[in-house]
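The instructor's notes for this session suggest beginning with a concrete chain rather than abstract definitions. Hand out the sequence below and ask the class to guess, before any prediction is shown, which regions might be ordered.
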Amino acid sequence: MKRLKTFLLYALIIAGFWIFSDIIIYVAINGTYTNVNAKIYTDSPEIIIGESKATYINGYVKGGIKNNTQGIINEKYVKIDLYSARDVKLGTKYIKIENLEPNNYQEFEMWYKFTDVDYATISITDDIKNASEEEFLSQKTATYLVIGTLLILYFI
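After discussion, reveal the predicted structure:
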C-alpha cells in the first residue's frame, strides 16, 4: 500500500510538472508575437482580418472572405504582400478562393517565414503567372506533407 501511494505521488508530480511546463511554454511563445497592421485594398469580396501577428522571423494572418457579390467567386486569389518598416517588400503569399457562393464566408489562415515584417497589404487578384509553389504552401499543409511522406517511407 505504501508503494502504491508513492507511485501515485510521483504520477501527480509528473502530471503537475507537465501542465506547468505547457502553460509556461504557451505564454513564452505567444508573448513574442506582436500585432502586424493589415491594409485591405478591396471592397468586393469583403476581407475580414481576425488576427495578424508576427515575431522577428515568422508570423501569420488569420481571417475570412465574405462574398458580397451576386455571383460565385471562383479561381480568384487573396494576395498578401508583406513589407518591412522601411517599405521594402519581403514577399508575397496567395490564398485560393474556390466556389464561394453569394453571402457565404470562407475562413483562411496563412503562415509565413519572413524576417521583420511590419505590415501587410491584402488584395484580390486573378493573375498569378509568376507565383512559385512556396507562395501557396501554408505551414499547416507543409506539416501534413511531411507527416504523409514519413508514413509512406515507413510502410515502404
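Then share the key points. The mean pLDDT is 87. The chain has two domains: 1-31, 35-146.
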